[in-house]
Amino acid sequence: MAATTVSARKPRRLRRRLLFVLIALVLVAGVTGALLEIGFRLFWRLPPQYAMFEQAGLYAATGDGGIGLAPGFRGALDVDGKVTDLRINSLGMRGPEPRPGADGRPRVLVLGDSIVFGFMCAEEDALPPVLAEELRRRGIDATVGNGGIPGFGTKHMAGHMAWLDRAFQADAFVFCSSPGNDGLDDMRQQFAICAGMRFSGHMARLVNESARMRAAVYSRAWLWLETWIYTNQPGWSPLLNVQPDMAEPLAMAGMPGAYPGFQRSFAGMFLDARDPQTIFNPGTWPPIPRVYATIRASFERARAIAGERPLVFTVIPTLWQFDDEARVAKFEDLRFDPADYEKGLAIKRWVEVGTALGEATLDVTPTLAAAPDRAGLFVDGGGHYSRSGSELIAREIAERLAPLLR
What we know:
alpha/beta, Rossmann fold, 5-stranded parallel sheet
């Protein structure tokens, strides 16, 4: 009887030892993983192409099925060593909490992409707060909301305009669009949010379908590993194996460059083509008519949302669209023949879309082109405006908007 009891205890002791060893291994692996993660976050400087990871937590899904900024977010964005503090209010807009809507002051909602948001700019140097200052100089103490979302195109701006207006209750709107990258951003079909970051195109599909990609989004150590794999063993990387949803390549067909990046499309220079039927890739169809059809649909939707309230469409160029020296250099970089393009043609077509709808459409290009220090208008060489650039744009908008608010 005693022998039986002893033999029965041995398997139980063995199981307990194995369980103890297993728990110890899990704890060691967990602690090691945590230390690795802390080490990579402290000592691994993200490459410039990973600047978006500095925005972790900034984005969130909105109640209407769209994407916006996460209410209450606090953080910082580090781009090329330039650190910008970010503060998102309870309405999902960059800046302080807006004043109550019943205070009798007019409320202006400014829509746009990273130009309106104030990418690489301090909060107070972004276009909306600078516009508030310009309106005060004209005797109008308005509450101006920053509805800018980095990465948005015009169709996303129009959708977000409806969402923000529910809570903000604007008395007037400023809808800012740019011939820089709005034409490309409008063609994007796929979007996803992971760890509070916004992904588009094939990266959105990758985040949705690859557990490895989601791990890299959440973990800097795993991100470093995937970066090493992509650099040294690219065949093992999910980045090169994801299959796109063909709806997006079809929507973007004909854009200069190749899917998924279409890098030659980003500056929007192709929109200056004299012949709108220009085909940039053999076997496709002209993209320019599709770009302007989308712009027109976005403007029409914005007009419907505004109803009887004032709405000012504002076309904001990049440096390459009004500075001759920068323009020539960009054409060389993009390998476009300048003879096939006309300076300012994209902006002219943009304005014609708004004017055809009977709306006040503002082109700020002449004012910017007259600035003595054109390079100083930008924080990044030509795409995003500094406070100096925002001041010039805000003055033009205030001149147009002030009479509509009185």
